Amino acid sequence: MSSLIVSRFGGNAAVSSLEVRKAAEIVKANPDRRYVIVSAPGADHDKLGITDLLYVCHSQRSSSENYDSILEKIYERYSEIVSGLGIKFNIDAELLELKQDIETGKTLDYIGSRGEYIMAKIFADYLDWPFVDAKDILFFGKDGEPDRERTFSTASKILQGFERAVIPSFYGTSYDGSIKTFPRGDCDTAGALVACSVKADLFEKWSETAKIYSADPSVVPDAELVRNITYGEVLELNYIGMDIVTDSVVFMLSDMGIPMMISSINNADDEGMNVSPVLPENSMRDVAVCVAGRKGFNVINIRKYGLNRIYDFGQKLFGLFAKHRIACQHYLSGIHQMSVVLKAPMFELRRDEIISDIKREIHPDSVTVERGLSLIAVVGEGMGTVKGIFSKILTALSLASIKVKMIDQGSDRLNIILGVSDNDYANAVKALYKAVVLNEVII
Length: 443
Hints:
Blueprint: E1 5-9, H1 17-29, E2 33-38, H2 50-62, H3 68-85, H4 91-103, H5 108-127, H6 148-159, E3 165-168, E4 171-173, E5 179-181, H7 188-197, E6 202-207, E7 228-230, H8 231-239, H9 247-256, E8 260-264, E9 273-276, E10 290-303, H10 313-323, E11 328-333, E12 337-343, H11 344-349, H12 351-362, E13 366-379, H13 389-399, E14 406-409, E15 415-421, H14 425-437
Parallel strand pairs: 1-2, 1-6, 2-3, 6-8, 7-9
Antiparallel strand pairs: 4-5, 8-9, 10-12, 10-13, 11-12, 13-15, 14-15
Helix pairs in contact: 1-3, 2-3, 2-5, 3-4, 6-7, 7-9, 8-9, 10-12, 13-14
């Protein structure tokens, strides 16, 4: 029985004709791949990506500077791709139209979107597939966020008329009819919107590398590859900084029950990593999928007697952080003290101002700052169901002579977050990997 697959290729799959051919071979290898979403050619060694070059063109035109040399670089990149593919695509006409768009003052979003627009047309020509413009099927609401309802409704109707199609990523149509782009680097959302619109059986993300390890390989060289992971686990790993796929894409695909496969364009025969709402029955997993962490946090400790009885304490404190545009990574609260974990660079830039504001607005008994904290997350679907997991974690760290400064379990019970000294980070990751990923017996 055939399936319907939506495949998304990033800018690395379009840097040259060789990479485009590679992507095309992947598409043609499986007839179930019916809708392909492509990006503009990305950066290639010392060459800027096409989108960056387009932004430079727009900037120089706005400043009445000559941008012909930048257009020439764009022309050379696309010409190499067209020539290397051996197709009769009229790149001259596309670049002439692009220059006219720049000269007539088209918006930055419009000009920035032309990289994907042209690349998708080239890819469609090479595959001999229809081209469907993203502006006709992807929409944004007044809040600037994707309008899922309108997109799902329109895209499903339009794409029903195409058995196969190539679609540009990165842009769609705003509520006022103008071209609007997604945030830079976010090509997954366009692909996920298409996948949900056509009720795909699978959404594929093809990237330069698809290897996700169950621990930092620089700390644990023999860390296992992650082959199966749930959307919930991805969200937890995103929180700790792994950025596997954007949270909005996770929520969208998870809500629709569509699994995702993250694969490497450089090794198409590799099985890749399967991301799904629930773990497959044949998944070989004991407790945790990954031990992930980041170094370099600060902890600000605010002590005030009876703060648990001050109804607006949290509102005032987090309001101050919001005022200084400081994101709180984590916090723990007791009867008389609240400890907030912050990214060190951003906090240190405004350290004196923030502490001064806290003293003025909250009148604490004391404010202290600890530096050099690492956050380590032990993530896995079994974290909330396996008996003795806390004991095993703490025993492993104790035997490694590591002091735990903070410990907390998420409300969804998918992770346990630990705070240790930066100096203990590597040893803590090693100890936790052996205990909860390899599930070694601790004596």
